[in-house]
Design a protein that fits this description.
about 170 residues, alpha+beta, four-stranded antiparallel sheet, two-stranded antiparallel sheet, 2 helices
Length: about 170
């Protein structure tokens, strides 16, 4: 028990010692420190964390991102619901970039249309998120296909997969 509390105290001390000092000067007028109309202190930005997040994310139309959505959708549908598969993507466009500010995990919100093998066009909303992949080492995609959210995880109509102002 003493080893655990000693380790916790040591880890907390190291974390506090690694925090950058408060930046001096007037930076309130600097647009680099404003995000979403609110002030974000430079010490609180995602880039200033112990494990920094720089927002180096692939674009909405990147083949790796679209391939990830296709792969997960096709395997989920085949395993639980039936033979439905994504055939192609259309009208891929970004919605928002870091909409909640510079102190949150960097996210790129996107929307697109998908054609499924039953011939129906559906909207897919997705976000590419930094450091939320395997063991926090890489980016990850969170997605929802409108009309096929059978557990209603992003209800109503996949709105919870979109950023707030776009809802």
């Amino acid at each position: 028990m003493r080893r655990v509390s000693l380790f916790s105290a040591l880890a907390a001390t190291l974390c506090l010692a690694a925090l950058p000092a408060q930046a001096g000067g007037d930076v309130y007028g600097d647009p680099a420190y404003r995000s979403g109309g609110r002030y974000v202190d430079p010490a609180d930005r995602a880039e200033a964390r112990i494990i920094p997040m720089y927002g180096n994310l692939p674009a909405c139309e990147d083949p790796a991102v679209l391939g990830e959505i296709t792969s997960w959708f096709n395997s989920r549908e085949a395993k639980f619901w039936g033979p439905l598969q994504i055939v192609s993507f259309d009208r891929v466009r970004p919605i928002a970039w870091r909409p909640w500010g510079a102190d949150f995990i960097p996210r790129r919100f996107c929307t697109a249309r998908v054609m499924t093998n039953d011939g129906v066009l559906r909207r897919v909303d997705y976000s590419v998120r930094e450091n939320l992949g395997l063991f926090g080492w890489t980016w990850n995609v969170n997605w929802c296909v409108d009309g096929l959210d059978r557990h209603r995880s992003y209800a109503p109509g996949c709105q919870m997969a979109r950023p707030g102002p776009e809802r």
